[in-house]
Amino acid sequence: MNLKEKINNDLKEAMKSGDKVRLNTVRSIRALILEFEKSGANKELTPEDELKLLTGAAKKRKDSIEQFRNAGRMDLVENEEAELKVLEEYLPKQLTEDEIKIEVQKIIAEAGAKGKEDFSKVMPASMKALKGRADGNLVRKIVESLLS
Fold first, then answer.
1. What is the separation of C-alpha 24 from the centre of its chain, rounded to a whole number of angstroms?
2. I need a surface site. Which of 53, 54, 94, 145 has the fewest CB within 10 A?
3. Which residues contact 23 (CB under 8 A, 6 or more apart)?
4. 3-state secondary structure 67-87
5. What average pLDDT does the segment 63-78 reach?
6. How many angstroms separate the Cα of 67 from the Cα of each of 29, 61, 64, 72, 73?
7. Mean pLDDT, all residues of the chain
């Protein structure tokens, strides 16, 4: 079952259950899919496109959480965190910091990287290998710490 079918099924379930947070989040994902389809690209929604849409939506929620927390709006933080939790159900399982470190160490060994000057070799390879499974900022921090 592709993402569009899963979202449509989950939308029906959320309506039946009365879970407003899930309903709003699933509707927002559905809106992203419809927007993509009507963008004029005339192409099918690929798994890569699905991942890009979902990670973008999750990143927006994380940014909003940070902004609301800085503004002291805990009521809005709770709502965004609840929506993020629903979004994460559709994303691949996120790796732990230790798992990311192991993957990055393998990439460093393969690239033969020695120090900070090799950051431009290691970072793109790391992001490609960990795409959708790890936060980019965390990957960057780990790459920098391992190369220093």
1. 18
2. 145
3. 11, 14, 15
4. HHHHHCCHHHHHHHHHHHHHH
5. 94
6. 22, 10, 5, 9, 9
7. 89
pTM more than 0.85: no
CA separation for the pair 43, 46 (Å, rounded): 8
Region at 38 (left for phi over 0; alpha for psi -120 to 50; beta for the rest): alpha
Each residue's pLDDT tens digit, 74-113: 999 999 999 999 999 998 888 888 899 999 899 888 888 7
Token digits for 141? 């921090």
Contact present, 86 and 124 (Cβ < 8 Å): no
Query: How many angstroms separate the CA atoms of 65 and 100, rounded?
Result: 24
Q: Is the pLDDT of residue 40 over 80?
A: no
DSSP 85-105: HHHHTTSPPPPPHHHHHHHHH
The three-class DSSP label of residue 45 is coil
